[in-house]
Amino acid sequence: MPTGVPTGAVVLGRAIRGQRPRVIAASLLGMTHQGCEALVPVVIGVIIDSAVATGSSASLLRWLVVLAALFLVLSTCYRTSARITEGAGEQAAHRLRLELATRVLDPRGGAETNRLPGALTSIATNDARRVGSVATAISYGVSAVAALVISAVALLRISVPLGLLVLLGIPPLLWLGHRISRPLERRSETEQERAAHASGVAADLVAGLRVLKGMGAESAAVARYRTTSQDSLAAALRAARSRAGHEGAVLALTGVFIAVIGLVGAYLAMDGSISVGELVAAVGLAQFLLGPFQLLTYVNAEIAQGRASARRIAEVLASPVTVEGGEAVPADAAAGHLALRGVSLGALRGVDLDLPAGGLTGIVARDPAAAADLLLCLAREKDPAEGTVELDGVPLTGLDPDALRRAVLVAHHDADLFESTLLDNVRSGADGDTTAVESALAASAADDVARLLPDGVDTLLAERGRSLSGGQRQRVALARALAADRPVLVLHDPTTAVDTVTESRIAHRLREVRRGRTTVLVTTSPALLAVTDRVVVLEDGAVRADGHHNELLAADETYRAAVLA
What we know:
Blueprint: H1 8-18, H2 20-52, H3 57-104, H4 117-158, H5 160-180, H6 182-207, H7 209-215, H8 218-271, H9 276-288, H10 290-317, E1 338-345, E2 348-355, E3 360-365, H11 368-378, E4 386-391, E5 394-395, H12 401-405, E6 408-411, H13 422-426, H14 434-443, H15 446-452, H16 470-484, E7 488-492, H17 500-513, E8 518-522, H18 526-529, E9 534-539, E10 542-547, H19 549-555, H20 557-564
Parallel strand pairs: 3-8, 3-9, 6-7, 7-8
Antiparallel strand pairs: 1-2, 1-4, 4-5, 9-10
Helix pairs in contact: 1-4, 1-10, 2-3, 2-4, 2-9, 3-4, 4-5, 4-6, 4-10, 5-8, 6-8, 6-10, 8-9, 8-10, 14-16, 14-17
Protein backbone atom coordinates (compact mmCIF):
# COMPACT_ATOMS: atom_id res chain seq x y z
CA MET A 1 0.00 0.00 0.00
CA PRO A 2 1.37 3.44 -0.83
CA THR A 3 2.76 5.49 2.01
CA GLY A 4 0.72 8.33 3.50
CA VAL A 5 -3.02 8.61 3.90
CA PRO A 6 -4.60 8.84 0.44
CA THR A 7 -7.47 11.25 -0.16
CA GLY A 8 -9.93 11.34 -3.03
CA ALA A 9 -7.82 13.95 -4.82
CA VAL A 10 -4.68 11.85 -4.34
CA VAL A 11 -6.37 8.71 -5.69
CA LEU A 12 -7.70 10.63 -8.69
CA GLY A 13 -4.36 12.29 -9.38
CA ARG A 14 -2.48 9.00 -9.06
CA ALA A 15 -4.86 7.29 -11.49
CA ILE A 16 -4.28 10.02 -14.08
CA ARG A 17 -0.51 10.23 -13.57
CA GLY A 18 -0.21 6.48 -13.94
CA GLN A 19 -1.63 6.75 -17.45
CA ARG A 20 0.18 9.98 -18.38
CA PRO A 21 1.88 8.66 -21.59
CA ARG A 22 -1.41 7.27 -22.91
CA VAL A 23 -3.36 10.39 -21.92
CA ILE A 24 -0.78 12.66 -23.61
CA ALA A 25 -0.73 10.55 -26.79
CA ALA A 26 -4.53 10.38 -26.92
CA SER A 27 -4.79 14.13 -26.23
CA LEU A 28 -2.41 14.99 -29.08
CA LEU A 29 -4.31 12.76 -31.48
CA GLY A 30 -7.62 14.16 -30.21
CA MET A 31 -6.37 17.72 -30.67
CA THR A 32 -5.37 16.88 -34.24
CA HIS A 33 -8.79 15.35 -34.88
CA GLN A 34 -10.63 18.33 -33.42
CA GLY A 35 -8.38 20.75 -35.30
CA CYS A 36 -9.19 19.06 -38.60
CA GLU A 37 -12.90 19.11 -37.72
CA ALA A 38 -12.71 22.85 -37.02
CA LEU A 39 -10.93 23.47 -40.32
CA VAL A 40 -13.65 21.73 -42.36
CA PRO A 41 -16.12 24.69 -42.30
CA VAL A 42 -13.20 27.07 -42.88
CA VAL A 43 -12.17 25.14 -46.02
CA ILE A 44 -15.79 25.03 -47.20
CA GLY A 45 -15.94 28.82 -46.80
CA VAL A 46 -12.75 29.17 -48.83
CA ILE A 47 -14.21 26.91 -51.54
CA ILE A 48 -17.26 29.16 -51.78
CA ASP A 49 -15.23 32.34 -52.07
CA SER A 50 -12.35 31.10 -54.25
CA ALA A 51 -14.02 28.47 -56.43
CA VAL A 52 -17.82 28.63 -56.44
CA ALA A 53 -18.05 32.45 -56.58
CA THR A 54 -15.38 32.63 -59.31
CA GLY A 55 -16.36 29.50 -61.21
CA SER A 56 -12.82 28.10 -61.06
CA SER A 57 -12.85 24.31 -61.56
CA ALA A 58 -9.14 23.97 -60.83
CA SER A 59 -9.51 25.81 -57.53
CA LEU A 60 -12.55 23.71 -56.65
CA LEU A 61 -10.68 20.45 -57.36
CA ARG A 62 -7.63 21.61 -55.36
CA TRP A 63 -9.66 22.52 -52.29
CA LEU A 64 -11.73 19.33 -52.51
CA VAL A 65 -8.47 17.34 -52.31
CA VAL A 66 -7.54 19.39 -49.22
CA LEU A 67 -10.98 18.66 -47.74
CA ALA A 68 -10.59 14.91 -48.42
CA ALA A 69 -7.16 14.95 -46.77
CA LEU A 70 -8.68 16.64 -43.70
CA PHE A 71 -11.33 13.93 -43.41
CA LEU A 72 -8.71 11.18 -43.79
CA VAL A 73 -6.54 12.66 -41.02
CA LEU A 74 -9.41 13.34 -38.61
CA SER A 75 -10.87 9.87 -39.15
CA THR A 76 -7.52 8.15 -38.51
CA CYS A 77 -6.76 10.28 -35.47
CA TYR A 78 -10.22 9.67 -34.01
CA ARG A 79 -9.95 5.87 -34.25
CA THR A 80 -6.44 5.78 -32.82
CA SER A 81 -7.21 8.29 -30.06
CA ALA A 82 -10.37 6.43 -29.01
CA ARG A 83 -8.46 3.14 -28.73
CA ILE A 84 -5.66 4.67 -26.66
CA THR A 85 -8.10 6.66 -24.50
CA GLU A 86 -10.29 3.69 -23.63
CA GLY A 87 -7.19 1.65 -22.90
CA ALA A 88 -5.97 4.34 -20.49
CA GLY A 89 -9.28 4.21 -18.60
CA GLU A 90 -9.23 0.42 -18.38
CA GLN A 91 -5.59 0.36 -17.24
CA ALA A 92 -6.25 3.01 -14.57
CA ALA A 93 -9.25 1.07 -13.26
CA HIS A 94 -7.22 -2.17 -13.28
CA ARG A 95 -4.39 -0.63 -11.24
CA LEU A 96 -6.91 0.73 -8.74
CA ARG A 97 -8.47 -2.72 -8.38
CA LEU A 98 -5.04 -4.20 -7.71
CA GLU A 99 -4.33 -1.49 -5.13
CA LEU A 100 -7.67 -2.13 -3.42
CA ALA A 101 -7.10 -5.90 -3.45
CA THR A 102 -3.65 -5.38 -1.91
CA ARG A 103 -5.15 -3.26 0.87
CA VAL A 104 -8.05 -5.64 1.54
CA LEU A 105 -5.66 -8.63 1.65
CA ASP A 106 -3.12 -6.81 3.81
CA PRO A 107 -2.32 -9.22 6.69
CA ARG A 108 -2.67 -6.31 9.13
CA GLY A 109 -6.40 -6.14 8.29
CA GLY A 110 -8.70 -3.17 8.78
CA ALA A 111 -10.10 -2.59 5.28
CA GLU A 112 -12.99 -4.98 5.84
CA THR A 113 -14.06 -3.39 9.14
CA ASN A 114 -17.72 -2.30 9.00
CA ARG A 115 -17.88 -3.13 5.28
CA LEU A 116 -19.81 -6.01 3.75
CA PRO A 117 -17.93 -8.11 1.16
CA GLY A 118 -20.44 -7.03 -1.49
CA ALA A 119 -19.76 -3.37 -0.70
CA LEU A 120 -16.01 -3.88 -1.14
CA THR A 121 -16.70 -5.65 -4.43
CA SER A 122 -18.79 -2.72 -5.62
CA ILE A 123 -16.01 -0.27 -4.72
CA ALA A 124 -13.42 -2.39 -6.53
CA THR A 125 -15.59 -2.60 -9.67
CA ASN A 126 -17.98 0.33 -10.11
CA ASP A 127 -15.96 2.97 -8.27
CA ALA A 128 -12.67 1.88 -9.82
CA ARG A 129 -14.31 2.01 -13.25
CA ARG A 130 -15.59 5.54 -12.66
CA VAL A 131 -12.21 6.78 -11.50
CA GLY A 132 -10.61 5.10 -14.52
CA SER A 133 -13.12 6.92 -16.74
CA VAL A 134 -11.60 10.21 -15.58
CA ALA A 135 -8.35 9.25 -17.33
CA THR A 136 -10.45 8.71 -20.44
CA ALA A 137 -12.32 11.98 -19.98
CA ILE A 138 -9.15 14.07 -19.52
CA SER A 139 -7.95 13.48 -23.08
CA TYR A 140 -11.45 14.23 -24.39
CA GLY A 141 -11.47 17.44 -22.37
CA VAL A 142 -8.07 18.51 -23.72
CA SER A 143 -9.27 17.80 -27.25
CA ALA A 144 -12.43 19.83 -26.69
CA VAL A 145 -10.50 22.82 -25.32
CA ALA A 146 -8.12 22.60 -28.31
CA ALA A 147 -11.13 22.63 -30.64
CA LEU A 148 -12.46 25.78 -28.94
CA VAL A 149 -9.08 27.53 -29.22
CA ILE A 150 -8.65 26.56 -32.88
CA SER A 151 -12.19 27.73 -33.64
CA ALA A 152 -11.55 31.03 -31.87
CA VAL A 153 -8.33 31.58 -33.87
CA ALA A 154 -10.14 30.77 -37.12
CA LEU A 155 -12.94 33.17 -36.22
CA LEU A 156 -10.36 35.86 -35.35
CA ARG A 157 -8.95 35.53 -38.87
CA ILE A 158 -12.43 35.87 -40.29
CA SER A 159 -13.49 38.65 -37.93
CA VAL A 160 -11.90 40.04 -34.79
CA PRO A 161 -15.28 40.60 -33.05
CA LEU A 162 -16.32 36.98 -33.68
CA GLY A 163 -13.00 35.64 -32.40
CA LEU A 164 -13.07 37.80 -29.28
CA LEU A 165 -16.67 36.76 -28.64
CA VAL A 166 -15.59 33.10 -28.52
CA LEU A 167 -12.40 33.71 -26.54
CA LEU A 168 -14.16 35.83 -23.92
CA GLY A 169 -17.25 33.66 -23.77
CA ILE A 170 -15.60 30.27 -23.26
CA PRO A 171 -14.13 30.81 -19.72
CA PRO A 172 -17.48 31.87 -18.14
CA LEU A 173 -19.22 28.92 -19.80
CA LEU A 174 -16.62 26.47 -18.44
CA TRP A 175 -16.90 27.99 -14.96
CA LEU A 176 -20.70 27.75 -15.03
CA GLY A 177 -20.46 24.12 -16.18
CA HIS A 178 -18.19 23.34 -13.24
CA ARG A 179 -20.58 24.99 -10.77
CA ILE A 180 -23.56 23.16 -12.22
CA SER A 181 -21.74 19.79 -11.75
CA ARG A 182 -21.52 20.16 -7.93
CA PRO A 183 -24.99 18.64 -7.15
CA LEU A 184 -24.24 15.77 -9.53
CA GLU A 185 -21.02 15.00 -7.65
CA ARG A 186 -22.81 14.85 -4.29
CA ARG A 187 -25.65 12.72 -5.60
CA SER A 188 -23.29 10.38 -7.45
CA GLU A 189 -21.43 9.69 -4.22
CA THR A 190 -24.71 8.88 -2.45
CA GLU A 191 -25.77 6.69 -5.38
CA GLN A 192 -22.55 4.66 -5.21
CA GLU A 193 -22.81 4.27 -1.43
CA ARG A 194 -26.40 3.00 -1.65
CA ALA A 195 -25.56 0.70 -4.57
CA ALA A 196 -22.57 -0.76 -2.71
CA HIS A 197 -24.70 -1.32 0.40
CA ALA A 198 -27.41 -3.02 -1.68
CA SER A 199 -24.78 -5.30 -3.26
CA GLY A 200 -23.41 -6.15 0.17
CA VAL A 201 -26.85 -6.98 1.57
CA ALA A 202 -27.67 -9.11 -1.49
CA ALA A 203 -24.43 -11.08 -1.18
CA ASP A 204 -25.02 -11.50 2.54
CA LEU A 205 -28.56 -12.84 2.01
CA VAL A 206 -27.50 -15.20 -0.77
CA ALA A 207 -24.68 -16.57 1.40
CA GLY A 208 -27.16 -17.33 4.20
CA LEU A 209 -30.03 -18.50 1.98
CA ARG A 210 -30.06 -22.04 3.36
CA VAL A 211 -30.15 -20.79 6.94
CA LEU A 212 -32.92 -18.31 6.13
CA LYS A 213 -35.03 -21.05 4.55
CA GLY A 214 -34.46 -23.30 7.53
CA MET A 215 -35.66 -20.56 9.87
CA GLY A 216 -38.60 -19.64 7.66
CA ALA A 217 -37.27 -16.08 7.50
CA GLU A 218 -37.53 -15.61 3.73
CA SER A 219 -40.19 -12.89 4.00
CA ALA A 220 -38.11 -10.86 6.47
CA ALA A 221 -35.04 -11.20 4.22
CA VAL A 222 -37.03 -10.11 1.17
CA ALA A 223 -38.41 -7.11 3.08
CA ARG A 224 -34.90 -6.13 4.18
CA TYR A 225 -33.53 -6.31 0.66
CA ARG A 226 -36.57 -4.52 -0.79
CA THR A 227 -35.98 -1.58 1.54
CA THR A 228 -32.26 -1.47 0.71
CA SER A 229 -32.91 -1.82 -3.02
CA GLN A 230 -35.52 0.94 -2.96
CA ASP A 231 -33.06 3.26 -1.20
CA SER A 232 -30.48 2.46 -3.88
CA LEU A 233 -33.02 3.02 -6.65
CA ALA A 234 -34.08 6.37 -5.19
CA ALA A 235 -30.44 7.50 -4.99
CA ALA A 236 -29.82 6.36 -8.57
CA LEU A 237 -32.89 8.25 -9.83
CA ARG A 238 -31.80 11.39 -7.99
CA ALA A 239 -28.34 11.10 -9.58
CA ALA A 240 -29.91 10.50 -13.02
CA ARG A 241 -32.14 13.57 -12.62
CA SER A 242 -29.13 15.58 -11.53
CA ARG A 243 -27.12 14.42 -14.54
CA ALA A 244 -30.00 15.18 -16.91
CA GLY A 245 -30.39 18.65 -15.36
CA HIS A 246 -26.66 19.23 -15.57
CA GLU A 247 -26.48 18.25 -19.24
CA GLY A 248 -29.65 20.18 -20.11
CA ALA A 249 -28.43 23.36 -18.40
CA VAL A 250 -25.02 23.20 -20.05
CA LEU A 251 -26.55 22.51 -23.49
CA ALA A 252 -28.96 25.44 -23.02
CA LEU A 253 -26.08 27.77 -22.20
CA THR A 254 -24.13 26.42 -25.16
CA GLY A 255 -27.08 26.87 -27.51
CA VAL A 256 -27.53 30.49 -26.48
CA PHE A 257 -23.79 31.11 -26.97
CA ILE A 258 -23.78 29.54 -30.44
CA ALA A 259 -26.91 31.47 -31.43
CA VAL A 260 -25.19 34.72 -30.42
CA ILE A 261 -22.18 33.82 -32.62
CA GLY A 262 -24.48 33.11 -35.56
CA LEU A 263 -26.38 36.38 -35.12
CA VAL A 264 -23.19 38.43 -34.88
CA GLY A 265 -21.83 36.67 -37.97
CA ALA A 266 -25.03 37.37 -39.92
CA TYR A 267 -24.91 41.04 -38.90
CA LEU A 268 -21.29 41.36 -40.04
CA ALA A 269 -22.13 39.71 -43.39
CA MET A 270 -25.07 42.07 -43.93
CA ASP A 271 -22.77 44.96 -43.04
CA GLY A 272 -20.23 43.80 -45.60
CA SER A 273 -17.50 43.19 -43.04
CA ILE A 274 -17.21 39.53 -44.05
CA SER A 275 -17.86 37.64 -47.29
CA VAL A 276 -20.51 35.00 -47.94
CA GLY A 277 -17.88 32.28 -47.68
CA GLU A 278 -16.66 33.70 -44.38
CA LEU A 279 -20.26 33.81 -43.12
CA VAL A 280 -20.69 30.13 -44.04
CA ALA A 281 -17.40 29.34 -42.28
CA ALA A 282 -18.47 31.32 -39.19
CA VAL A 283 -21.88 29.59 -39.02
CA GLY A 284 -20.22 26.21 -39.60
CA LEU A 285 -17.75 26.87 -36.81
CA ALA A 286 -20.60 27.96 -34.52
CA GLN A 287 -22.40 24.68 -35.21
CA PHE A 288 -19.16 22.75 -34.80
CA LEU A 289 -18.67 24.32 -31.37
CA LEU A 290 -21.71 22.37 -30.14
CA GLY A 291 -19.59 19.17 -30.29
CA PRO A 292 -16.75 20.39 -28.06
CA PHE A 293 -19.22 21.89 -25.60
CA GLN A 294 -21.14 18.60 -25.41
CA LEU A 295 -17.81 16.84 -24.90
CA LEU A 296 -16.96 19.21 -22.06
CA THR A 297 -20.39 18.51 -20.54
CA TYR A 298 -19.56 14.78 -20.60
CA VAL A 299 -16.09 15.45 -19.15
CA ASN A 300 -17.56 17.56 -16.34
CA ALA A 301 -20.01 14.80 -15.43
CA GLU A 302 -17.34 12.08 -15.54
CA ILE A 303 -14.96 14.08 -13.37
CA ALA A 304 -17.74 14.88 -10.89
CA GLN A 305 -18.65 11.20 -10.55
CA GLY A 306 -14.98 10.20 -10.57
CA ARG A 307 -14.25 12.51 -7.63
CA ALA A 308 -17.10 10.95 -5.65
CA SER A 309 -15.83 7.42 -6.39
CA ALA A 310 -12.23 8.42 -5.66
CA ARG A 311 -13.24 9.50 -2.15
CA ARG A 312 -14.85 6.09 -1.53
CA ILE A 313 -11.73 4.30 -2.76
CA ALA A 314 -9.55 6.55 -0.60
CA GLU A 315 -11.61 5.60 2.47
CA VAL A 316 -10.75 1.92 1.93
CA LEU A 317 -7.09 2.58 1.18
CA ALA A 318 -6.80 4.84 4.24
CA SER A 319 -8.54 2.37 6.58
CA PRO A 320 -6.53 2.08 9.81
CA VAL A 321 -4.90 -1.32 10.24
CA THR A 322 -6.27 -3.63 12.92
CA VAL A 323 -2.80 -4.67 14.06
CA GLU A 324 0.53 -2.94 13.55
CA GLY A 325 3.15 -4.90 11.67
CA GLY A 326 6.37 -6.02 13.31
CA GLU A 327 9.62 -6.74 11.51
CA ALA A 328 10.85 -10.01 13.03
CA VAL A 329 10.30 -13.25 11.13
CA PRO A 330 9.79 -16.63 12.86
CA ALA A 331 12.45 -19.22 12.17
CA ASP A 332 11.75 -21.58 9.27
CA ALA A 333 11.62 -24.46 11.72
CA ALA A 334 9.67 -22.69 14.46
CA ALA A 335 9.34 -24.87 17.57
CA GLY A 336 5.74 -23.72 18.03
CA HIS A 337 5.75 -22.85 21.75
CA LEU A 338 2.77 -20.54 22.38
CA ALA A 339 2.33 -18.61 25.62
CA LEU A 340 -0.35 -16.15 26.77
CA ARG A 341 0.75 -13.79 29.55
CA GLY A 342 -2.08 -11.96 31.31
CA VAL A 343 -4.10 -11.62 28.11
CA SER A 344 -7.28 -9.54 28.26
CA LEU A 345 -9.46 -8.88 25.25
CA GLY A 346 -13.23 -8.77 25.10
CA ALA A 347 -14.43 -11.76 27.14
CA LEU A 348 -10.89 -12.82 28.13
CA ARG A 349 -9.75 -11.71 31.59
CA GLY A 350 -6.03 -12.02 32.36
CA VAL A 351 -5.51 -15.41 30.72
CA ASP A 352 -2.20 -17.12 31.52
CA LEU A 353 -1.72 -20.14 29.31
CA ASP A 354 1.30 -22.18 28.24
CA LEU A 355 0.98 -24.32 25.09
CA PRO A 356 4.17 -26.41 24.79
CA ALA A 357 5.83 -27.04 21.45
CA GLY A 358 4.73 -30.28 19.80
CA GLY A 359 1.78 -30.75 22.17
CA LEU A 360 -1.87 -31.44 21.35
CA THR A 361 -3.92 -29.23 23.63
CA GLY A 362 -7.67 -28.97 23.96
CA ILE A 363 -9.33 -25.75 25.11
CA VAL A 364 -12.92 -25.76 26.33
CA ALA A 365 -14.68 -22.40 26.53
CA ARG A 366 -18.35 -22.50 27.45
CA ASP A 367 -18.68 -18.86 26.45
CA PRO A 368 -18.48 -18.62 22.62
CA ALA A 369 -17.29 -15.01 22.94
CA ALA A 370 -14.26 -16.14 24.95
CA ALA A 371 -13.41 -18.75 22.32
CA ALA A 372 -13.77 -16.18 19.54
CA ASP A 373 -11.55 -13.65 21.33
CA LEU A 374 -8.92 -16.31 22.01
CA LEU A 375 -8.82 -17.18 18.30
CA LEU A 376 -8.49 -13.50 17.39
CA CYS A 377 -5.46 -13.22 19.68
CA LEU A 378 -3.78 -16.40 18.42
CA ALA A 379 -4.33 -15.42 14.77
CA ARG A 380 -3.30 -11.87 15.60
CA GLU A 381 -6.40 -10.50 13.97
CA LYS A 382 -6.51 -8.32 17.09
CA ASP A 383 -3.91 -7.49 19.69
CA PRO A 384 -4.77 -7.99 23.39
CA ALA A 385 -5.92 -4.94 25.30
CA GLU A 386 -3.58 -6.13 28.07
CA GLY A 387 -0.86 -8.77 28.21
CA THR A 388 1.07 -10.48 25.42
CA VAL A 389 0.93 -13.57 23.23
CA GLU A 390 4.32 -15.12 22.45
CA LEU A 391 5.62 -17.57 19.88
CA ASP A 392 8.86 -19.25 20.93
CA GLY A 393 9.43 -16.43 23.43
CA VAL A 394 8.89 -13.60 20.90
CA PRO A 395 5.78 -11.39 21.33
CA LEU A 396 3.48 -11.64 18.32
CA THR A 397 3.42 -7.83 18.14
CA GLY A 398 7.09 -7.93 17.14
CA LEU A 399 6.54 -10.37 14.29
CA ASP A 400 5.63 -9.55 10.71
CA PRO A 401 1.90 -10.48 10.41
CA ASP A 402 2.33 -12.27 7.07
CA ALA A 403 5.35 -14.24 8.31
CA LEU A 404 3.47 -15.06 11.53
CA ARG A 405 0.61 -16.64 9.59
CA ARG A 406 3.10 -18.85 7.78
CA ALA A 407 4.00 -20.27 11.19
CA VAL A 408 0.62 -20.14 12.95
CA LEU A 409 -2.59 -21.14 11.16
CA VAL A 410 -5.91 -20.52 12.88
CA ALA A 411 -8.65 -22.44 11.06
CA HIS A 412 -11.97 -20.86 11.97
CA HIS A 413 -15.15 -22.88 12.33
CA ASP A 414 -16.89 -21.05 9.46
CA ALA A 415 -14.08 -21.31 6.88
CA ASP A 416 -15.35 -21.00 3.30
CA LEU A 417 -14.40 -23.15 0.33
CA PHE A 418 -13.55 -21.78 -3.09
CA GLU A 419 -15.34 -22.31 -6.38
CA SER A 420 -12.76 -24.78 -7.64
CA THR A 421 -12.05 -28.50 -7.51
CA LEU A 422 -11.90 -30.32 -4.18
CA LEU A 423 -8.19 -30.98 -4.76
CA ASP A 424 -7.45 -27.32 -5.50
CA ASN A 425 -9.23 -26.33 -2.30
CA VAL A 426 -7.15 -28.70 -0.21
CA ARG A 427 -3.78 -27.92 -1.76
CA SER A 428 -4.29 -24.14 -1.79
CA GLY A 429 -2.10 -23.87 1.30
CA ALA A 430 0.12 -26.91 0.79
CA ASP A 431 2.99 -25.25 -1.15
CA GLY A 432 2.87 -27.98 -3.77
CA ASP A 433 3.57 -30.82 -1.29
CA THR A 434 1.62 -33.78 -2.74
CA THR A 435 2.40 -36.01 0.24
CA ALA A 436 0.96 -33.46 2.68
CA VAL A 437 -2.23 -33.23 0.59
CA GLU A 438 -2.72 -37.00 0.54
CA SER A 439 -2.11 -37.26 4.29
CA ALA A 440 -4.50 -34.40 4.96
CA LEU A 441 -7.26 -35.95 2.84
CA ALA A 442 -6.93 -39.23 4.74
CA ALA A 443 -6.68 -37.64 8.21
CA SER A 444 -9.78 -35.49 7.71
CA ALA A 445 -11.78 -38.28 6.04
CA ALA A 446 -12.13 -35.97 3.03
CA ASP A 447 -10.98 -38.87 0.86
CA ASP A 448 -14.33 -40.49 1.68
CA VAL A 449 -16.05 -37.35 0.43
CA ALA A 450 -14.04 -37.48 -2.82
CA ARG A 451 -15.09 -41.07 -3.44
CA LEU A 452 -18.74 -40.05 -3.39
CA LEU A 453 -18.26 -37.29 -5.95
CA PRO A 454 -18.60 -37.92 -9.71
CA ASP A 455 -15.03 -36.87 -10.58
CA GLY A 456 -13.40 -37.62 -7.23
CA VAL A 457 -10.94 -34.97 -6.05
CA ASP A 458 -11.24 -33.27 -9.44
CA THR A 459 -14.94 -32.51 -8.93
CA LEU A 460 -15.70 -28.82 -9.24
CA LEU A 461 -17.31 -27.44 -6.08
CA ALA A 462 -19.95 -24.72 -6.15
CA GLU A 463 -19.32 -21.29 -4.63
CA ARG A 464 -18.42 -21.62 -0.92
CA GLY A 465 -18.76 -25.40 -1.33
CA ARG A 466 -22.57 -25.29 -1.34
CA SER A 467 -22.69 -28.43 -3.49
CA LEU A 468 -21.47 -30.36 -0.42
CA SER A 469 -23.26 -31.10 2.82
CA GLY A 470 -22.22 -29.33 6.01
CA GLY A 471 -20.18 -32.28 7.23
CA GLN A 472 -18.48 -32.72 3.88
CA ARG A 473 -17.52 -29.02 3.77
CA GLN A 474 -16.04 -29.30 7.26
CA ARG A 475 -13.91 -32.26 6.26
CA VAL A 476 -12.57 -30.53 3.15
CA ALA A 477 -11.84 -27.36 5.17
CA LEU A 478 -10.04 -29.46 7.79
CA ALA A 479 -8.02 -31.19 5.06
CA ARG A 480 -6.97 -27.77 3.74
CA ALA A 481 -5.79 -26.69 7.20
CA LEU A 482 -3.85 -29.93 7.71
CA ALA A 483 -2.29 -29.79 4.24
CA ALA A 484 -0.83 -26.36 5.04
CA ASP A 485 1.38 -28.22 7.57
CA ARG A 486 2.10 -25.19 9.76
CA PRO A 487 4.29 -25.50 12.88
CA VAL A 488 1.28 -24.32 14.90
CA LEU A 489 -2.30 -25.24 13.98
CA VAL A 490 -5.33 -23.96 15.88
CA LEU A 491 -8.65 -25.64 14.99
CA HIS A 492 -12.00 -24.30 16.11
CA ASP A 493 -14.79 -26.92 16.28
CA PRO A 494 -13.67 -28.72 13.10
CA THR A 495 -16.18 -31.61 13.34
CA THR A 496 -19.50 -30.19 14.61
CA ALA A 497 -21.38 -31.36 11.47
CA VAL A 498 -19.65 -34.76 11.23
CA ASP A 499 -21.25 -38.01 12.46
CA THR A 500 -19.79 -39.54 15.65
CA VAL A 501 -18.14 -42.53 13.95
CA THR A 502 -16.33 -40.34 11.42
CA GLU A 503 -15.47 -37.82 14.14
CA SER A 504 -13.78 -40.50 16.23
CA ARG A 505 -11.78 -41.68 13.22
CA ILE A 506 -10.74 -38.09 12.44
CA ALA A 507 -9.66 -37.52 16.04
CA HIS A 508 -7.20 -40.43 16.03
CA ARG A 509 -5.88 -39.63 12.54
CA LEU A 510 -5.49 -36.00 13.51
CA ARG A 511 -3.27 -36.93 16.43
CA GLU A 512 -1.04 -39.01 14.17
CA VAL A 513 -0.73 -36.52 11.31
CA ARG A 514 0.11 -33.67 13.72
CA ARG A 515 2.51 -35.64 15.90
CA GLY A 516 5.49 -33.50 16.91
CA ARG A 517 3.85 -30.20 15.93
CA THR A 518 1.86 -27.84 18.11
CA THR A 519 -1.89 -28.30 17.74
CA VAL A 520 -4.66 -26.54 19.63
CA LEU A 521 -8.27 -27.75 19.51
CA VAL A 522 -10.81 -25.17 20.67
CA THR A 523 -13.81 -27.44 21.02
CA THR A 524 -16.25 -29.20 23.32
CA SER A 525 -16.18 -32.45 21.31
CA PRO A 526 -15.43 -35.38 23.65
CA ALA A 527 -14.03 -37.42 20.74
CA LEU A 528 -11.44 -34.75 19.94
CA LEU A 529 -10.68 -33.89 23.56
CA ALA A 530 -10.07 -37.59 24.34
CA VAL A 531 -6.97 -37.67 22.10
CA THR A 532 -5.38 -34.49 23.49
CA ASP A 533 -2.40 -34.43 25.84
CA ARG A 534 -4.20 -32.01 28.16
CA VAL A 535 -7.34 -29.88 28.32
CA VAL A 536 -7.57 -26.28 29.52
CA VAL A 537 -10.96 -24.99 30.68
CA LEU A 538 -11.83 -21.31 30.32
CA GLU A 539 -14.57 -20.03 32.62
CA ASP A 540 -15.60 -16.39 32.93
CA GLY A 541 -12.75 -15.45 30.62
CA ALA A 542 -9.97 -17.03 32.72
CA VAL A 543 -8.31 -20.44 33.12
CA ARG A 544 -10.35 -22.41 35.66
CA ALA A 545 -9.09 -25.97 35.20
CA ASP A 546 -6.22 -27.82 33.54
CA GLY A 547 -5.79 -31.60 33.22
CA HIS A 548 -6.38 -34.70 31.14
CA HIS A 549 -9.79 -35.20 29.55
CA ASN A 550 -10.63 -38.36 31.54
CA GLU A 551 -9.53 -36.76 34.83
CA LEU A 552 -11.68 -33.69 34.24
CA LEU A 553 -14.68 -35.83 33.28
CA ALA A 554 -14.40 -37.72 36.56
CA ALA A 555 -13.70 -34.80 38.88
CA ASP A 556 -15.31 -31.71 37.34
CA GLU A 557 -19.08 -31.61 37.05
CA THR A 558 -19.04 -28.32 35.12
CA TYR A 559 -16.61 -29.74 32.57
CA ARG A 560 -18.69 -32.90 32.29
CA ALA A 561 -21.78 -30.85 31.55
CA ALA A 562 -19.96 -28.78 28.93
CA VAL A 563 -18.58 -31.64 26.86
CA LEU A 564 -21.29 -34.26 27.32
CA ALA A 565 -24.31 -31.95 26.91
